């Protein structure tokens, strides 16, 4: 189990945060749901921009929701699969960067999809 409040007790650097992030994402289903959430985010941005440009609708105001699209899939994966709390509660920017780094490392085989036994 990840102790989220541990970050409040001392200042940590991004690499330490990222190791905590990886420890909170051991199950392959969690990583896949995060990946799906990132794809959904890209699709969301594309649709907002496409509809705004092609239909002359002013939908750009919906872009403010973009950082939250991934959470529709990512957070439930923590609650129901990993049985922990999302680290985005502590630092949304580092969580977003860690999510992108984790997905990159899974795709480039630097991090295995299933790390439950480690």
Structural overview:
The chain has 118 residues and is mainly alpha-helical. Helix content is 62%, strand content 0%. The protein has one domain. Helix 2 crosses helix 6 and helix 3 runs antiparallel to helix 5. The chain is elongated.
Sum up the structure in keywords.
6 helices; 118 residues; mainly alpha; elongated; single chain
Structural class: mainly alpha
- The Rg value, from CA coordinates, equals 16 Å
Count, helices: 6
- Series of H and E elements: HHHHHH
Q: Based on DSSP secondary structure assignment, what is the total number of beta strands?
A: 0
Name the quaternary structure.
Answer: single chain
Estimated share of beta-strand residues? under 5%
The general outline is elongated
Distance between the termini: 13 Å
- Counting structural domains, the number is 1
Helix content estimate: 55-70%
Summed over residues and divided by their number, the pLDDT gives a mean of 84
Concise overview:
The protein is mostly helical.
Topology readout:
Blueprint: H1 6-9, H2 14-23, H3 28-54, H4 66-69, H5 71-82, H6 92-107
Helix pairs in contact: 2-6, 3-5, 3-6
């Amino acid at each position: 189990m990840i102790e989220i409040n541990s970050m409040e007790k001392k200042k940590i650097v991004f690499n330490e945060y990222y190791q905590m992030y990886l420890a909170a994402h051991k199950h392959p289903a969690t990583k896949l749901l995060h990946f799906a959430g990132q794809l959904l985010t890209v699709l969301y941005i594309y649709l907002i921009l496409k509809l705004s440009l092609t239909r002359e609708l002013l939908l750009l105001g919906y872009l403010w929701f973009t950082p939250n699209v991934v959470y529709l899939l990512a957070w439930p994966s923590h609650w129901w699969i990993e049985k922990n709390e999302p680290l985005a509660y502590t630092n949304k920017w580092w969580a977003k960067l860690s999510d992108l780094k984790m997905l990159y490392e899974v795709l480039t085989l630097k991090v295995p999809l299933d790390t439950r036994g480690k």
